[in-house]
Amino acid sequence: MYELRRATAADAAALRVLIESSVRTLSEGFYTRAQIDSALLYVFGPDTQLIADGTYYVVEGDDGTLIAAGGWSRRRTLYGGDQMKDAADPLIDPRIEPARIRAFYVHPRWARRGLGRQLLARCEADAEAAGFETLELMSTLPGVPLYHAAGFHEIERLAPVLPDGVTLPVVRMRRALHRPA
């Protein structure tokens, strides 16, 4: 059994462990070892602003370990942990901009068991309740199948160059939130 709950600041250390395990294992075959190492150093990590905003969730196993995490945001940042930010992260207007789906990670032993979909459903409901009509995200290559299955469509493929010169192919995706009449 497991519990889906809001992340707290006390989860930061456990999130780092989850993120590293998820990225190192689930990215194999999609990214090189150099890309994985670079991404963990410069891109992937906890985003404490999401936690402070109350829009980041964790799934905790019976033994208290974090087995999945993911969230959404009403802020400008589209992807990346604290290490990518160098300035304030302003709020966006839900009437004209999409909510951001952010930082989804699943422990490899718990992959493909529906945890990502559960987190995504929670984030979609929250974003819709906050007045957003569209969702946007930047997916890693291993995440693309999940987001395609959830109705997201590809906007563009990018390969940002990280500070050490390594490129990290990612896919920007978007989906409308369907509101009942």
Describe what you observe in this structure.
This protein has helices at residues 12-26, 33-42, 48-53, 115-129, 144-149, and strands at residues 2-6, 56-61, 66-73, 99-106, 134-140, 153-158, 170-176. Helix 1 (12-26) packs antiparallel against helix 2 (33-42). The chain has a seven-stranded mixed beta sheet with strand order 1-2-3-4-5-7-6. It is globular, with a radius of gyration of 15 Å. With 181 residues, it is an alpha+beta fold. The mean pLDDT is 94. It has five helices and seven strands; from the N terminus they run βαααβββαβαββ. Strand 4 (99-106), helix 4 (115-129) and strand 5 (134-140) form a beta-alpha-beta unit. The chain has a single domain (2-176), classed as Aminopeptidase (3-Layer(aba) Sandwich). The longest helix is centred in the N-terminal third of the chain and has 15 residues, at 12-26. Helix content is 29%, strand content 26%.
Low-confidence stretches: none
Residue-averaged pLDDT, rounded?
94
Strand content: 25-35%
Give the class-level CATH name: Alpha Beta
Please compute the radius of gyration using only Cα atoms: 15 Å
So, CATH architecture?
3-Layer(aba) Sandwich
**Cross-sheet strand order for the largest sheet:** 1-2-3-4-5-7-6
Shape: globular
Query: Biggest β-sheet, characterized?
Result: 7 strands, mixed
Topology pattern, helix = H, strand = E:
EHHHEEEHEHEE
State the CATH superfamily name. Answer: Gcn5-related N-acetyltransferase (GNAT)
